[in-house]
Amino acid sequence: KKNDIFDLSGYVMFDYDRFDASLLEDGTESSSLVEIRRARLSLKSDINDLWEGKFQVDVADGDIDIKDAYLEYKGWSFADLTVGQQKENFGLEKLTSSRNLLMIERSMVTEAFAPGRSLGVSLSGELPSVYWQLGYYAPDYATDSEEASSAVTGRIAWVPWQENDNLLHLGFAFSEREYDGEQFRINERLEVNQADSLLEGKKIDADNVSLQGLEILWVQDRFTLMSEWQQASVSSIEQEDYDYEGGYVQFGYQLSGGFRKYKNGKLSKVSDQGWELTGRYSEFSLIEENEDAETYTIGLNYTLNKNVKFMGDYIKAEHFEAGTSVSSGNAISFRVQYSF
Amino acid sequence: KKNDIFDLSGYVMFDYDRFDASLLEDGTESSSLVEIRRARLSLKSDINDLWEGKFQVDVADGDIDIKDAYLEYKGWSFADLTVGQQKENFGLEKLTSSRNLLMIERSMVTEAFAPGRSLGVSLSGELPSVYWQLGYYAPDYATDSEEASSAVTGRIAWVPWQENDNLLHLGFAFSEREYDGEQFRINERLEVNQADSLLEGKKIDADNVSLQGLEILWVQDRFTLMSEWQQASVSSIEQEDYDYEGGYVQFGYQLSGGFRKYKNGKLSKVSDQGWELTGRYSEFSLIEENEDAETYTIGLNYTLNKNVKFMGDYIKAEHFEAGTSVSSGNAISFRVQYSF
Amino acid sequence: KKNDIFDLSGYVMFDYDRFDASLLEDGTESSSLVEIRRARLSLKSDINDLWEGKFQVDVADGDIDIKDAYLEYKGWSFADLTVGQQKENFGLEKLTSSRNLLMIERSMVTEAFAPGRSLGVSLSGELPSVYWQLGYYAPDYATDSEEASSAVTGRIAWVPWQENDNLLHLGFAFSEREYDGEQFRINERLEVNQADSLLEGKKIDADNVSLQGLEILWVQDRFTLMSEWQQASVSSIEQEDYDYEGGYVQFGYQLSGGFRKYKNGKLSKVSDQGWELTGRYSEFSLIEENEDAETYTIGLNYTLNKNVKFMGDYIKAEHFEAGTSVSSGNAISFRVQYSF
User: Domain containing B71 — which CATH number?
Assistant: First the structure.
């Protein structure tokens, strides 16, 4: 067995976080921590013109997790078929590879809602000015379940104009998710990965969860603007309803020239090496729990070449209960990212 | 250090199982489950004409397990020497790579008895019309043991005639295994991997285990017939004896033409792409426990190309205690298999 | 994304140990055990002339651990910069790759003191006749800590003369390590990996640890002499001091000719295939605990080619408490090592 067309790649991210005690659950003094944030290895093979396969694993703390593991069929004119473990098509920021994010961490709402990877079957197609995806998945909420949970997730993006460095993307996505009594719970950090989860919702034995999201992406030469709004309605098995919502607005500006690339309805990497200035406002609300959070971030990224990237973010985060600020703190995060 | 002759490969299997509640220990309704059945990565290197190395890992549920990890010396005329972790040479179906099985799962008797991989040293040779293997192994029954367990396992196959698409293979294999008080227990599913283990033998503090097996493989053009009979005698440290036995008959028929390949005393992949019809009868008996099981399976496989294969099986399984059927159920299993 | 300059390699070591009951904590009879001692996979990429990246994982017992994971910048004339997870520069034997050791296991003092790999930043440079390294690290003593521990580790080696097969290396290394109350404890085997840890020091809630080490390496044609002396001073958070010290002298002699290579202040592999005779005397003392150990080892290595190496060691170990021998035993170890 010979592997003629075969691509091995990967990336490692080293992170340093320094943050106030207020971003810890029981913190008494500020913390400085380092970690390997992600270490990923990917194998991609073009089986032939019609079939493509990908296999990706993540290594962390002694564990290895299968991320992407799918087979894609590109032989139909109306849509491509993907079978296996894959990202569910919900959320522009979630669908953006972690290597290509504007900020070091994704926004609270993306982390809280976006389903991530599941075993399933999906279709993705392209019409004039439109990208669409639709999939049926068996998310893995619980490992001992006798019955796979199920989810239908879809996304459509209208791109009224699209040139290399000038485009507008307007997207809508939804996900209808059966939980069969498995637990749903909001448990989120305020966009600092080595700090603690301060946003803690009720533990809900969920019957089903409905997600909706709106996306805007505008690329105009050196300037990128990206924003999403998402909401989740959770029905418990005792017929109670819980609502959550949030969103963010973020921008990037290529100080050294160039632009952010866009491909198949997703944000991709910068076109040129050099400096990028970024900023974000992000918020998240647990409506019935009467709990909120807000963050403001500014950042500076430096892309050395296709393999090496540096990122720095300053984050100001505030946490509210019943409308009153219960904690507020600052953090700085640095990342060295190495792709191969 | 440059790696001139080096082969990286792997495979991923995605499985869907739907089965009756009767195939679960405490099931009340039928189940549908999906899983990544196997995800394997292999490195093979031809060191030179005389030495060859292989290293293979399996990734599952956060864990990574070393499968094959051995060094093979091919410099002697009478036999090849293999040192390291390797499959013990017992059981035609076990020695068949999971990528090349006729059915989605191996038979009950193979799963129950065949030793699988152990650290050890083995010889494998070829005489006119005969393949033989003999090895001394240190199976890893318990991790805290002060003393490695040991096993001697051998196999001989007589192949009275052998052309590409026309051969007869008659094999015998044995394994004499020291347990030193480690536990032996039959704990098997009825050939549906995501269902529960219904065949549950006594937990025996074993002194030693003797295994014997008979193998028949007949390939005649599009038709492949394969059958094994195996038995195990377990002596406990209290001098009690327990006996187990079982076997299967299975066939494959290449609807689209071609034949099943055969190599070094083992079944290999199909020669051509296309459809294959399969069937199996399988049984297993725990004699002292007076417990039995039987399965009937029919299946259909489609080999798209050397990278992609689809399999579907319908299984009818029955479980007996003291000769009386205690549960019986049906299952369907589908597999998408991607090799790279 | 195409990977033009990219190097995948790895190695697997298979070990057999047979040792007396006295090398086990509660042993009653001698033991024979086998194991896969190390299974490592490395990816190395030359990003360009200035940047280089390495990623290495170790697979063992279901776990996968990130070993080297760093990015190296070689663009400055005075020093190279390394960012990420890397070996701290302490101890000649520790810095020698496990593939190139003279004996199967490293000495007690190296295993007890040398910090191994940490996340951090280091500089390494070269002056006429001098190699130096200096780094700042965040060792991972505890996983739940709110504050990263920190360490400054440095090493300098003077090489008064250096030809291919004739050199003298005199080195000094230190490490100043903040523990912030995390536990320090000596817990070492007597250079037989599958035996038990007999050297057991007090569990100390450490405030800081100071390490110092001296190194000599002398290569003269077929003969290699290598020796280190190291000491550790541990201050507990209750202001108590504990001292530990130890060292070894070991040699290698290339029976078949050739010599041991030396590169960037570290011992490397043999220049030619063939036989190597080795020997070692090693000792270690827990001063306040009044506990000591000594080992004598002789060994024979055979390097078949750049991929395959065999090693055999005979070890005589003795363990003293308050100056009195409490146990003494013999062991033999064999290794088959396969690099690819």
Answer: 2.40.160.10
Task: Check if C6 contacts A (Cβ < 8 Å).
Answer: yes
Q: Is residue C83 part of a domain?
A: no
pLDDT of residue C270: 93
Write the ipTM: 0.88
**For residues B51 and B80, what is the distance between their CA atoms, to the nearest angstrom?**
10
Number of domains in chain C: 1
Contact B1/C at CB under 8 A: yes
CB distance C105 to C144 below 8 Å? no
pLDDT value for C7: 82
- Look at residue A61 in the predicted model and tell me its pLDDT: 80
Q: Read out DSSP for B163-227?
A: ETTEEEEEEEEEEEEE-TT-EE--EEESS-TTS-EEEE---EEEEEEEEEEEEEEEEETTEEEEE
Q: Would residue B1 count as lying in a domain? A: no
Q: Is pLDDT above 70 for C97? A: yes
Q: CA C332 to CA A47: how far, in whole Å?
A: 50
The answer to whether A12 faces chain C, any CB pair under 8 Å, is: yes
C60 has a chain A CB within 8 A of its CB:
no
Residue B119 or residue C47, greater confidence = B119
At a CB cut-off of 8 Å and minimum separation 6, what does A209 contact? A175, A177, A179, A184, A232, A233, A234, A235
The answer to whether the CB atoms of A7 and C8 lie below 8 A apart is no
Inform me whether the C-beta atom of residue C43 falls under 8 Å from chain B C-beta atoms: no
Q: B67 to chain A, minimum CA–CA distance in Å?
A: 16
- Mean pLDDT (whole number) for C13-37: 91
Nearest CA-CA partner of A180 in A146, A132, A215, A129? A146
- pLDDT single digits (tens) A275-301: 999 999 999 999 999 999 999 999 999
User: What is the mean pLDDT of the segment spanning C21-42?
Assistant: 90
Measured between CB atoms, which of C53, C64, C147 is closest to A340? C53
C119 and A36: CB-CB below 8 Å?
yes
CB < 8 Å to A64, chain B: 59, 62-64
Q: Please provide residue A287's backbone torsions phi and psi, each rounded to the nearest 5 degrees.
A: -70, -55
Cβ(B179)–Cβ(B141) below 8 Å: yes
Name all chains with 3 or more CB-CB pairs below 8 Å to chain B: A, C
Q: Which token pair is C282? A: 């090693």
Q: What is the mean pLDDT of residues A209-220?
A: 97
φ and ψ of A234, to 5 deg: -115, 125
Q: Is C79 helix (H, G, I), strand (E, B) or coil?
A: coil
In a domain, B235, yes or no: yes
**Per-residue pLDDT reduced to its tens digit, B241-288:** 999 999 999 999 999 999 999 998 899 999 999 999 999 999 999 999
Instruction: Please answer yes or no on whether B63 and A65 come within 8 Å at the CB atom.
Output: no
Whole-angstrom distance, CA of residue A52 vs CA of residue B107: 32
* Among candidate residues B214, B184, B193, the one with its CA nearest the CA of residue B295: B193
A128: three-class secondary structure by DSSP: coil
Look at the block and give the residue holding tokens 């033991």: C31
Q: What is the pLDDT of residue C3?
A: 44
Q: Is A300 a member of any domain?
A: yes
Domain region containing B160: 6-339
